[in-house]
Amino acid sequence: DSCSPRSIMAADPSAAAAPADPDGPDAVRFTWNAWPRSKVEASRCVVPLAVAISPVRSPESLASPPLPYPPLRCKPPCSALLNPFARVDFAAKIWICPLCFSRNHFPPHYAGISENNVPAELFTQCSTVEYLVAGPPGSPAPLPPVFLFVIDTCVIEEELEYVKLSMRKAVALLPEHALVGLVTFGTQVHLHELGFSELSKIYVFRGSKEISKEQILDQLGLSGGGRPGFPKMTQQPGVQQVNGMHPLVTTGVNRFLLPVSECECTLSTLLDELQPDQWPVEAGNRAIRCTGVALNVAAGLLGACVPGTGARIIALLGGPCTEGPGVIVSKDLSEPVRSHKDLDKDAAPHFQKAVKFYDGLAKQLVSQGHVLDVFASALDQVGLAEMKLAIERTGGLVVLSESFGHSVFKDSFKRIFEGGEHSLGLSFNGTFEINCSKDIKVQGVIGPCTSLEKKGALCADTIVGQGNTTAWKMCGLDRNTSLTVFFDVSPSERSGQPGHQNPDLYIQFVTSYQHPEGQMRIRATTVSRKWVDGSTNTEELVEGFDQETAAVVLARYISLKMEIEEEFDATRWLDRSLIRLCSRFGDYRKDDPSSFSLHSNFSLFPQFMFNLRRSQFVQVFNNSPDETAYFRMLLNRESITNSVAMIQPSLISFSFDSPPSPVFLDVASIAVDRILLLDAYFSVVIFHGMTIAQWRNMCYQNQPEHQQFAQLLQAPQEEAQVIINGRFPVPRLVVCDQHGSQARFLLAKLNPSATYNSAHDVPPGSDIIFTDDVSFQVFCEHLQRLAVQS
């Protein structure tokens, strides 16, 4: 099973091609599928004990349809749900919890249970089941989903027209019963009262100062009495006052948030009349834009009208905030927007204050159960780095593009509202809980969630990400949402004694959430893995290593460390970790690099680390803080398969003499008579070799005798479209030719096996890369030399 010494140079790219569903029926992937029993052995494994889980991956993947009854729970403090790993005594009608070993009696309605008649949650294939949670009889029907659009009008006419076009498509795609609201902002914030259809009625808020939630509600007439210094809202005709107070909050819903069926015409008229912000902009200045106040007003409105209900604030931003809370740059154009260098040197005067503002907004939205989605379309930065907290803590979606007319924005925006097979399955108001065997502790979670601060015996001393809790709030989640949970091994005295050792460990993930159709559901996933004695049995550890998951977990871990630790050197940390891992699990004679080989389960790992070191997650040079924040948010929330594509793009070759096939991510893969398709997740590149480009420019593909050439040109386009259709955010499509200016999108990702230093060895027709970076071959030679050192 061991690889040859050279095989870690370039493992076969087709080996990286994933099977049908690498996440399995439970949508759970472990870095190690066998766990060492002691803390010391766990630290010697180098790669953390972690699990990536997609809590609400598409229900079609479940073995059983949703169960129409509530789940059975173990007695507190355990409270784990009944699952296939429970031991059942059918005669005594008792089940024993595999996590805490408590004995529980089945309730009377399980009286018919027997070996031939078991409920679905005990079937071995039902390790993941979903329960429908019915409210008490007579409880109100669930409220429809709420979409509050916040639109930036400090943009040029052409951009605003693109926004209007996308908004009209979105409103047409929304379900009839969904509630919609509209806030527009520039120098001031305008909240549109959609329920007042006789004429356009707008509440205006000054953009220059921070306003509290109470002041917002007073101005909208949604709070109790008037406040000193504020005009008392006049009573609307025909609405009864209650005890001298303002009309009940329900009227607030009817005034500002209306079902699509009732306000489609009003919205259409409002969009027609919408104009770019009229406030004059002095020469040499930026537009005055009060993003912070606009989001504050939106959050305040939702908090008053629909607290605890699935609601999304969808913000469409066309530039940086320059006024009021959340400012990221001054109005003066001579001051550039902060760069990574400024942040490193503490030379970004607005950064900490803006982060603090968005931290407060995040806390407010999480307590209300609402989501912030941001669609940023601008050539300059808009402040995603500051907003990252609020977007990630609420589980919001984020899309970064250059213009509202770009397909990245238009297609991604439309995708949110689409149903059918491309639906994102947007769910709301989730909570995510973890229960596990006694000897395991939870360090924390990296991903789109917020700690609910539920401390207990299962919390580890060391914290990774959102830690010191076993429950998290997920205001927004969808089919692709993935969380990474970090664990620690903490054996108790008793479990170390022979005879008391349980060979299996159990972890249960319980997610309760509001399904897109409105009803509440509980999904329970229970998984089991083997304990192994790592000091004597490395074979089982090696057999259970998942190199893709390990690469992604390390990428998420170092992204977090780069954000919270000032002097953290990610490249050095990765190199040391890789050397330790190869030293521990490689096969070699001491001090003989040529004898080094790796098991096939590790063979791709050096390649992943090589590409991770060069990726946008580690090398922030040439990226703005907004782009880095954007890349990291997506890395932290996507599935393992998608995240691997971000770290190590895939490359497919199309040519006359062979069917489409994966090739090495290497400059040597370029040839004049080939078309290459690169999937780098955020962009998809179709790269034509020189000869192919010349033939295309001569229009050979239009001649009947060159049908085969026409098909060759079409094949990568079709493949690219398949990738684009299945992905959110929609990737940027780049079509380029060898030696063209846009070829850089491909060259930047390739292994520089041929550089300007070795140009004399390059076969004619292939390419070289102008770089001093080391190639993968040199990287591996160093790795082998250091791993075998005694």
What does this structure look like?
The structure is a single chain. The protein is α+β, with helices and mostly antiparallel strands and about 800 residues long. Among the domains are: about 220 residues, beta-sandwich domain of Sec23/24 (Immunoglobulin-like); about 240 residues, Rossmann fold. Helix content is about 30%, strand content about 20%. It is built from 20 helices and 27 strands. The strands form five sheets. Strands 8, 9, 10, 11, 12, 13, 14 and 15 form an eight-stranded mixed sheet that branches. Strand 25 and strand 26 form a beta hairpin. The longest helix has 19 residues. It is globular. About 45% of the residues are buried.
SSE inventory with pairings:
Blueprint lengths: L27 E3 L3 E3 L2 H6 L5 E4 L33 E3 L4 E3 L6 E3 L22 E6 L12 E7 L4 H17 L5 E7 L2 E5 L9 E5 L6 H8 L28 H8 L1 E2 H14 L17 H15 L5 E7 L22 H5 L6 H18 L1 E8 L6 H10 L4 E4 L5 H11 L9 E10 L3 E7 L3 E2 L19 E7 L5 E7 L14 E11 L5 E13 L5 H6 L3 H18 L5 H16 L19 H10 L10 H13 L2 H8 L2 E6 L2 E5 L12 E5 L3 E6 L1 H8 L9 H19 L6 E6 L6 H4 L28 H12 L3
Parallel strand pairs: 2-22, 8-9, 8-13, 13-14, 14-15, 26-27
Antiparallel strand pairs: 1-3, 3-20, 4-5, 5-6, 7-22, 9-10, 9-12, 10-11, 16-19, 16-21, 17-20, 18-19, 21-22, 23-24, 23-25, 25-26
Helix pairs in contact: 2-5, 2-10, 3-6, 6-8, 8-9, 9-15, 12-14, 12-16, 13-20
Measured as a percent range, the helix fraction is: 25-40%
Number of strands: 27
Strand content bin: 15-25%
Briefly, what CATH class of the domain at 146-221 and 253-416?
Alpha Beta
Which structural class should the secondary elements be placed in? Answer: alpha+beta
Summarize the biggest pleated sheet.
8 strands, mixed
Shape from CA axes? globular
In the CATH hierarchy, the third-tier topology of the domain at 146-221 and 253-416 is known as Rossmann fold
Q: Helix count?
A: 20
Q: Give Rg in angstroms.
A: 28 Å
Mean model confidence by pLDDT: 89
The CATH superfamily of the domain at 146-221 and 253-416 is von Willebrand factor, type A domain
Assigned CATH architecture of the domain at 146-221 and 253-416 = 3-Layer(aba) Sandwich
Intertermini distance: 25 Å
- Runs with pLDDT <50, length 5+? 1-19, 225-249
GO biological process, one term: COPII-coated vesicle cargo loading
GO molecular function, one term: GTPase activator activity
Subcellular location: Cytoplasmic vesicle, COPII-coated vesicle membrane; Endoplasmic reticulum membrane
Domain Zinc finger Sec23/Sec24-type: 71-110
